[in-house]
Amino acid sequence: MNKQELIKKFEERKTIIGNFQGYAIWWEDIKAIFEELNEPKKVTIPQFVADWIEKYKTELSLREAMSQAHVSIEVNDWLIELDEDGAFLNQDIFARAWFDGYEVEREKRYVVTLKNGQPLVKSQSGNTLYFNQNITVGNYKASRKELEEAGFGWVFDCPGIEIEEVQDDSKI
What we know:
Blueprint: H1 3-14, H2 20-38, E1 43-45, H3 47-56, H4 62-67, H5 73-79, H6 91-100, E2 102-104, E3 109-114, E4 120-122, E5 129-131, E6 141-143, H7 144-149, E7 161-166
Parallel strand pairs: 1-2
Antiparallel strand pairs: 3-6, 3-7, 4-5
Helix pairs in contact: 1-2
């Protein structure tokens, strides 16, 4: 509930204070609102930030964990990202995640296929990605990071490739 909703709720209820029964209902509403306000909301962060927090939360203070972020280019870049007004976007989110908990945002996943229909698949060992000549083989669903780490980052810029973002893991 945001500030405007709280103000509106209090404005609606203040006319009820005149009678005792109304006051009791109003008081229960106030208690519920304050309980909701005291409940910290979890923020959503990328997996690499969650990994950083989990790695250092028991060893470092919040300040130390943020100041050591330069060790990871990915975490550092995320922490120093600015909005259009030049304010830091993610430092408050990092602190809230550190203290109140977090949820990990789901990475976008992609299905990659050559224009001739050959799907990008993963070997049974899980170590290799390759295009399979058997077009009936199921496509591998990979994040951008997985594709880049496997040397397939070029597929996002190649006109001979079809890339489809997969919204639901059950799709393919």
